[in-house]
From TrEMBL:
Residues 18-78 form the HTH tetR-type domain. GO terms for molecular function: DNA binding. Signal peptide: none annotated. It comes from the Bacteria. This is TetR family transcriptional regulator. InterPro entries: Homeodomain-like_sf, HTH_TetR, Tet_transcr_reg_TetR-rel_C_sf, TetR_C.
Length: 212
């Protein structure tokens, strides 16, 4: 080895690894998803992401900032994908809802990541000290219901749903079913079990959209 090669090798060995923000977020997301916000410590996050604490603080400011970024990552990777199932204008309103629910069931029971909904799983067992985190999660819960309501109202304006139908009530009901599916998935329910729940919802669909 020449002197120049020797110097380059030593420099290479001492060079710090570049921080991969997306990989770190994916690791943090899984950790928060599996254990919740309060049960996940900074030491856990350091071990999972492979980044040192000063690096995480420089990038996300604090644990809450990292959680907020992980929440946005979940929306980007999973929530928006499920929401897209509603967007196809060629499908009937019932087909859109069924697609959305079946896409959600697949996500909740995907064995490659924690079961259930990230927002619902991480909102349990929060103390009063985590008020801002609880509010963030509550906002996301409301956004899911708002997405369903917007879809139903749009199809109502197009004449697919009777004008006398209580779309707000239907959206609330569907949101509650989704939360229940998340809890069941967290308890170990299979995709087939969640599909059975969806089958029941779709059999009830004509009654759900019946004019008040």
């Amino acid at each position: 080895m020449t002197i120049n090669q020797d110097v380059c090798a030593k420099k290479g060995r001492g060079r710090p690894k570049l921080f991969d923000r997306e990989t770190a977020l994916d690791k943090a997301l899984e950790l928060f998803w599996a254990h919740g916000y309060e049960a996940t410590s900074l030491a856990d996050l350091v071990a999972a992401t492979g980044a040192k604490a000063p690096t995480l603080y420089a990038e996300f400011e604090n644990k809450e900032g990292l959680f907020r970024a992980a929440m946005d990552r979940y929306i980007e990777k999973f929530a928006e994908q499920r929401k897209a199932a509603l967007a196809c204008p060629e499908r009937t309103v019932a087909q859109g809802i069924e697609n959305y629910f079946r896409s959600t069931a697949a996500c909740f029971t995907d064995r490659t990541k924690p079961a259930g909904c990230f927002f619902i799983c991480t909102s349990t067992a929060l103390s009063a000290a985590s008020g801002e985190v609880a509010e963030m999660l509550r906002t996301r819960h409301n956004a899911q219901e708002a997405t369903l309501l917007e879809f139903l109202q749009q199809r109502q304006q197009q004449g697919e749903i009777a004008r006398a139908t209580d779309t707000d009530g239907v959206a609330k009901y569907l949101s509650c079913v989704l939360q229940g599916m998340s809890v069941r998935a967290r308890e170990g329910a299979s995709r087939e079990e969640l599909e059975g729940i969806i089958d029941t919802v779709m059999r009830l669909w004509p009654t759900l959209v019946m004019p008040a």
